[in-house]
Amino acid sequence: MLYQDAYIYATILEPGDSVTHSLANDRGVWIQVARGGVQVQEQTLNAGDAIALWDTPDLQVNYRTRSSKITASASYPK
Hints:
This protein is mostly beta strands. 0% of the residues lie in helices and 71% in strands.
């Protein structure tokens, strides 16, 4: 169970895919890469990597390597 004011998302990216997530001003995001690799903003993330961001109104995640999979991405208050 998750006892937070949070939204959990998951996605699998294929070649050419990207995902854009809009955050409210008072929200942050945690992205955990389970498999493959993605580009988040200007950061390259590979399997096992994670990043937390705040004050990012439009967050874009781009496919980088084969079988990119983000298993959990939570949007939560600051």
